[in-house]
Amino acid sequence: MPGFIKPQLATLRSKAPKGEQWLHEIKYDGYRIQIHINGGRKKAYTRNGLDWTKRFSTIAGAFDIPGQAIIDGEVVVVHEGRTNFSELQAELAAGRQGRLVYYAFDLLWRDGDLRKLSQLQRKQALSDLLGENDIDLPVIYSEHLTGDGQVLFKHASKLNFEGIISKRADSPYKSERGEAWVKVKAIQREKFPVVGFIKDPSGVAALYLGKQEGKELRYMGKVGTGWNRTTSSRIRKQLDTVVSPKSKLTKPVRKPKATWVEPKFFADVEYRDITSEGLLRASSFKGLSRNDKS
Question: What pTM, to 2 d.p., does this model score?
Fold first, then answer.
């Protein structure tokens, strides 16, 4: 039985493939974890090969399976009906494992190497392995659909999932990023009032964002990517015209490096998610526009 196997990775695409040769799964927002079972010994490795068995001892211990097996999957926390990375980080920081769930989606080894088998054969072997050994929560078999992936992607987006991963049904497992696995992410986009910024020598290093909710202007986090030096300089010149001596947020936040501004400009921002703390996650700047209504 080998040690840690470098994982297969998906290539980002703007649209999901279709056709019966593709399997489509929900993309889980968590930690990619490889479970190794060798008789009574069980280990959990991260996608970079770090031994995190102690952190995921409950999940590793749930695999009451004889013989040898290597399973590929994702550790998540399900919050409000979908996987939530921020909730997962909070659980791990507190040393808790009670809410952790492991979505198993591939079987690389079962008393021998299965990587040359097709994706569909490996998934069937995984389903059989879990079923025959009555493996239950916190382990869940990752179901899939075949056919038009864009249909599943639209449903996943409406439910605020991170996206989907599409896999060639006939492909072997290869420890690389290739075209046999492709991912499509659900990106959300919205305009947020700029409430402050962090200076850099020629422009801005980051923008602080808010959101108007009734009479309250609530803090939504910051965005620090998506512009070049020229754009950064232009943003700075615009924001310098509306500098305020204090924050306009209803509930002030402590940001020692902030230069506060009147919320006259709106940042067009793409983001993946809103964390449990109400902050934007994986945000990227797309443009700035003036609002002269207020």
Answer: 0.71
